[in-house]
Design goal:
The chain is an alpha+beta fold. It folds into six domains: 2-154, Rossmann fold (3-Layer(aba) Sandwich); 165-216 and 494-588, Orthogonal Bundle (Topoisomerase I, domain 2), CATH 1.10.460; 221-277 and 410-472, Topoisomerase I, domain 3, CATH 2.70.20; 284-405, Topoisomerase I, domain 4; 611-688, no CATH class; 692-762, no CATH class. The chain is 36% helix and 24% strand. The protein has a six-stranded mixed β-sheet with strand order 2-3-4-1-7-8, with helices on both faces. It has a six-stranded antiparallel barrel with strand order 9-10-13-12-11-14. A hairpin with a 2-residue loop joins β3 and β4. α19 (543-556) runs antiparallel to α20. The chain binds one DNA strand through β5, α4, α6 and α16. Residues 155-577 form the Topo IA-type catalytic domain.
Length: 770
DNA sequence: GCAAGGTC
């Protein structure tokens, strides 16, 4: 008989086995899941890691067909819990049948308690056993040993609070999503799903609120009086003390008084040292924000990359709330690892400074240490083991952040001058980085020096220029992904591990998109939020998550039973649901509008022309077997035309086929195809449809020079094939303009190279004007 | 096909 321990993940299982056994354990495999065996105090121990939740809720089978079930029914249907990871359940049963006691050792949080209860439930199906709980806040040796010598009872309330979350989230998500999707499909043909959820919807809500601010923004005029000074040959600028002046008269009045002044007097000077402290250690949220802000890597990708770096042993566990190191954290051995290679300089600075001081934050989730490097690696090492495009950039950020955290503050010397011009005060500031400290290793945050000439109080300076400029206040900027993460974190939307996936869901649904680092809301997302805001405003706001959160907190605290929380939560969802359904028509009409627009946009690409048989529209049809043009009147009209098998097709709407083809299409970059006729290069109308692009008269015969483009070159040739040729630029996009050269009468060529301005010149290399 | 939460 053995003592069986279940942890939340494999990594924790092996770590705990190693600590409790002093490193003497065997790795076995049960149902191909790793199990760590050892003996302690004469007892047999077996530790297995789960993989997060191994059970999940869903509605019973008969509620699975969306069309056959009123979504409202879901609110009164209790979901059922099923095993979602069969091998783990089988392994638990096997271990439990040979056990005398079970110890739950998952993470010490709500979900961890719940995952433990999943194992408990499966274990109790095969054997009646005492089940205990080991509570630890980190995987350090002392904590683990303490937890296992002070086992406690599993916390039923805590586990049930997570149960309440799962059931309420599912009920709400499924009912609302099905209702929305089905209502819209009554009006618009779409396969898309319009989803709503207690995390994804308020996440989109943040983007929507910002969009509204931008849309409703009214710019205001303001004036600013600036001076350009010069002293000892160096220019520098100052701003009038009034700053942004919102009344034109006031700005004009000040400016009129001083506009002819030529000299300023330095009235006051102060020099102060300023410091910028190194950043706190990285927890998940901070890491994701910085990866987005500094590297332009999306939160989803950043978390996945960090996961891969962790699995390959380069960096620590990426999901942590903690931004402070434990007192006994071993910085020194990590730093020694970096004392060669590209981080050498910084590691040595820290090691040689005597005491190693980290700048700790204040958050302690009692889970894992802040994200830090585990071992030193080169770019090659990383790229060989981790197949993610930004693996090296992410690793480099983690290492640099780790080192920066241990370095000295950056020191600046800030100089402020007050310069009097005609009795008016102008403020001048300068800043010099005197000691870069941590900024040296952290190139992501740049601080530019703003240099001032050496000036003392009572000096006179030249006034080179005075300006009174009008500006407008600018609207707020669109949110960046980093800012969105901050908002989600602040309002408790999602967890450290799920926040990126809520952003991703919104992108997948077509609610918003990212362009670089900024997020723009799309039509569907804006309309959905706007209609929800008008009918069930609580849904668009973080409040919805807070309401459910407070219910489950009551369960955790023992102030409410699971059943009470579920019925209260269901009531809340029902209230919102009835608000939503009461404006079904208005919502569906507006939403269908945005969906129909999308449909038309994609259809437009597929529309080919008018069917000569029945007058309806012809469209392109793609099947597994191939593609062809068919009539939208099918099955009444069975008219079809073949299309070439390969090449991208574009309908050339401005071209008409002279031989009666229903449309002309461009096939790749190669040739044209007349629908109903065939390829244009076999047609006797070819010369008429595609006359050569004449650029000028041939200088040697009576023919004309025209552009000839072959697979690997392009040049000018003569229509009479007289043998005269001229060259044209080999690269860049070439256009023959209608404009003629004033010197020789040839056409002007326009050449546009990527990332360069277009150039225009005469096509004739022998032009007298060239 | 629907949510959010774990982790592989």
């Amino acid at each position: 008989m053995s003592i069986v321990v279940f942890t939340e993940k494999n990594k924790a299982a092996s770590q705990i086995a190693s600590i409790l056994s002093g490193g003497h354990f065997n790795r076995a495999s049960v149902e191909s899941i790793p199990v760590y065996d050892f003996k302690m105090n004469g007892k047999e121990w077996r530790i297995m890691g789960l993989a997060g939740h191994i059970m999940g809720y869903d509605f019973p089978e008969q509620f699975n067909n969306w069309r056959e079930c009123d979504p409202a029914v879901l609110l009164d249907t209790p979901p059922v819990k099923n095993v979602t990871k069969k091998p783990y359940a089988a392994a638990i049963s096997l271990l439990a049948s040979g056990a005398e006691e079970v110890v739950l050792a998952c993470d010490f949080d709500r979900e961890g308690e719940n995952i433990g209860f999943e194992a408990k439930e499966i274990a109790e199906r095969v054997a009646s056993l005492p089940v205990k709980r080991a509570r630890f806040s980190s995987l350090s040796s002392s904590e683990i040993k303490k937890a296992f010598s002070n086992l406690v009872e599993p916390d039923y309330n805590m586990a049930m609070s997570a149960e309440a979350r799962q059931i309420l989230d599912l009920k709400m998500g499924a009912a609302f999503t099905r209702f929305m999707t089905l209502s819209i499909r009554e009006r618009a043909r779409t396969k898309g799903v319009i989803s709503i959820g207690p995390c994804q919807t308020p996440t989109c809500g943040f983007v929507y609120e910002r969009e509204k601010l931008i849309k409703n923004f009214k710019p205001k005029d303001f004036w600013k009086i600036e001076a350009l000074f010069n002293s000892k040959g160096a220019d520098f600028t100052g701003v009038h003390r009034a700053g942004n002046i919102h009344e034109k008269e006031k700005a004009d009045e000040i400016f009129a008084r001083i506009k002819d002044c030529k000299v300023g007097l330095v009235d006051k000077k102060s020099v102060k040292e300023a410091r910028t402290n190194p950043p706190y250690p990285l927890n998940t949220t901070e890491f994701l924000k910085r990866a987005s802000k500094f590297l332009g890597v999306s939160p989803e990708e950043a978390l996945e990359t960090a996961e891969q770096l962790y699995l390959s042993g380069f960096t620590s566990y990426p999901r942590t709330e903690t931004n402070k190191y434990a007192d006994d954290f071993d910085f020194k051995s990590k730093l020694i690892g970096f004392s060669s290679g590209i981080y050498q300089k910084y590691a040595l600075i820290i090691l040689s400074s005597g005491d190693i001081n980290c700048r700790n934050g204040t958050k302690d989730g009692h889970d894992h240490p802040p994200i830090h490097p585990i071992k030193a690696a080169s770019k090659d090492d990383i790229e060989k083991s981790v197949r993610m495009p930004n693996a090296w950039k992410v690793y480099d950020l983690v290492v640099r952040h780790f080192l920066a955290n241990l370095m000295e503050p950056a020191l600046f010397e800030k100089t402020r001058l007050e310069i009097l011009v005609g009795g008016e005060i102008f403020d001048v500031t300068g800043s010099i980085l005197t000691n870069p400290g941590w900024l040296d290793v952290y190139p992501f945050e740049t601080k530019n020096d703003k240099l001032l000439p050496l000036i003392e109080e009572k000096d006179e300076v030249d006034v080179k220029e005075l300006k009174n400029t009008k500006s407008e206040t600018t609207p707020p900027k669109r949110l960046t992904e980093a800012e969105l993460l901050t908002l989600m974190d602040k309002h408790g939307i999602g967890t450290k591990a799920t926040a990126p996936s809520h952003i991703e869901t919104n992108k997948k649904r077509g609610y918003f998109e990212t362009k670089g680092k900024t997020i723009s809301i799309l039509d569907t997302g804006f309309t959905l939020m706007d209609t929800l805001d008008a009918t069930v405003p609580i849904l668009v706001q973080p409040e919805i998550r807070a309401r459910i959160e407070s219910l489950i907190q009551d369960v955790e605290d023992g102030n409410k039973s699971l059943d009470a929380a579920l019925s209260e939560g269901t009531m809340l969802i029902k209230q919102m649901y009835s608000q939503l359904t009461s404006s079904k028509d208005a919502i569906a009409a507006r939403m269908a509008g945005t969906i129909v627009d999308e449909q038309v946009a994609t259809d437009k690409k597929n529309f080919v022309g008018t069917c000569p048989e029945c007058g309806r529209m012809l469209h392109m049809i793609k099947t597994e077997k191939g593609r062809f043009v068919g009539c939208t009147g099918y099955p009444e009209c069975k008219n079809t035309y073949p299309l070439p098998k390969a090449g991208a097709l574009t309908v050339l709407r401005s071209q008409q086929c002279e031989k009666g083809g229903v449309a002309v299409m461009k096939v790749g970059n190669k040739y044209n195809w007349a629908v109903g006729i065939g390829p244009c290069f076999t047609c006797d109308m070819e010369k008429k449809c595609f006359p050569p692009e004449i650029v000028g008269p041939c200088p040697v015969c009576d023919g004309s020079m025209f552009l000839i483009v072959t697979k690997d070159s392009r040049f000018l040739g003569c229509t009479n094939r007289c043998g005269h040729t001229q060259s044209v630029p080999k690269s860049g996009r070439l256009t023959i303009l209608d404009r003629l050269c004033e010197h020789c009468g040839w056409h002007i060529l326009r050449v546009k190279e990527q990332k360069q301005d277009a150039m225009e010149f005469c096509a004739n290399r022998k032009c007298p004007g060239r």
